[in-house]
Design brief:
The protein is an alpha/beta fold. The protein has nine helices and ten strands. Helix 4 crosses helix 5.
Length: 326
């Protein structure tokens, strides 16, 4: 049986016997600590009470890069299911990726937030072996096609962050991402609030009929084009909609629905990239290519072509070291 992330586990399908295709995806040097690269700081955990979902709160952590200067607005990247994306031994290891890419000027200086699904005080915190689908607010928050989770991010999280950090007000400088149900939740935030978030990172997205997510391709085609940039990743061995009794439901075929999303976005002329691999419903493939996904999403940062601009041609040093040099 597949071991699936999030709600996909309820629809796990039998696979043909054979090698696990995920073994071919390994983390590269951009996802690992590198000698001489300044390390950002992980702050938290913090608790964010929710008025959108009364009685629940969200736990989150904040990554502050070594190059962060409070006098300059920083870009922002939010990761749903934050525990998985910040895990130093996990499949994605975002803090390492940010350290390496910011240092080499391949992405802008950015604050990153790792936020977990909401939960009541009597419910457990999601973790690596239990993402919270059966015992937290994750299914409702992430899979519902409405503005409630976007309100959590825009109306509750952002104000809390801006009390402590100088975050850009430019929606082009804000991105959000996730895996599985966290990916469709990220898309919903940008779709509902494009004046606040315009970059979307989608790993093995659950654009399936868990709570109606399979309608997004039709909604995209019928709606005016929005200023959203999105990178989709999925695998041919994702959950494919065949139930244990052998019946097939295309609305719960993860790979098919990701392809349908790609087709709809392409037809409408969205700034979109996609990669289809061979993997299952896991973060193995997405983690392996995350550095390239981030470079593509953030490729529009300002750049100087002046050959005498030695700042542009140097590594980004920590903010304190930059201040001392000046």
């Amino acid at each position: 049986m597949i071991l699936a992330l999030g709600p996909a586990g309820a629809f796990a399908q039998r696979q043909d016997q054979g090698p696990n295709p995920d073994i071919h995806y390994r983390l590269g040097p951009d996802s690992l600590p590198q000698e001489g690269v300044p390390k950002g700081e992980i702050r938290g955990p913090f608790t964010l009470p929710s008025e959108v979902f009364p009685g629940t709160s969200h736990t989150y952590w904040v990554y502050v890069p070594a190059q962060y200067d409070p006098s300059k607005p920083a870009s922002l990247m939010v990761f749903n299911d934050g525990h998985a994306f910040m895990n130093p031994e996990g499949d994605v290891r975002v803090p390492n990726v940010l350290d390496n890419l910011i240092y080499r000027r391949e992405i802008p200086v950015m604050i990153a937030v790792f936020i977990n699904p909401g939960r009541r005080p009597d419910q457990p915190e999601p973790h690596a072996k239990d993402w919270g689908d059966r015992n937290t607010n994750r299914p409702v928050e992430y899979n519902s096609l409405d503005d409630r989770y976007p309100r959590v991010i825009v109306d509750e999280l952002l104000p809390a962050l801006k009390k402590d950090y100088n975050i850009s007000d430019d929606p082009e400088q804000r991105g959000i991402g996730g895996a599985s149900s966290g990916a469709i939740a990220a898309f919903t935030v940008a779709w509902e609030r494009p004046n606040h978030f315009r970059k979307v990172l989608s790993l093995i997205g659950s654009y399936t009929n868990l709570r109606g997510g399979h309608v997004y391709p039709d909604v995209i085609r019928k709606s005016p084009k929005k200023p959203i940039r999105i990178f989709l990743q999925d695998g041919r061995n994702d959950n494919r909609g065949t139930r244990r009794d052998g019946t097939y439901d295309e609305q719960r075929d993860w790979f098919l629905q990701n392809v349908r999303m790609k087709d709809a976005l392409q037809e409408k002329g969205y700034d979109m990239a996609y990669v289809w691999g061979i993997g299952r419903h896991s973060q193995k493939h997405g983690g392996a290519i995350l550095p390239e996904m981030m470079r593509w999403l953030w490729r529009d940062q300002p750049v100087s072509v002046d050959p005498n601009d030695q700042t542009e041609r140097s590594f980004r040093e920590p903010a304190q070291k930059q201040a001392a040099a000046n």
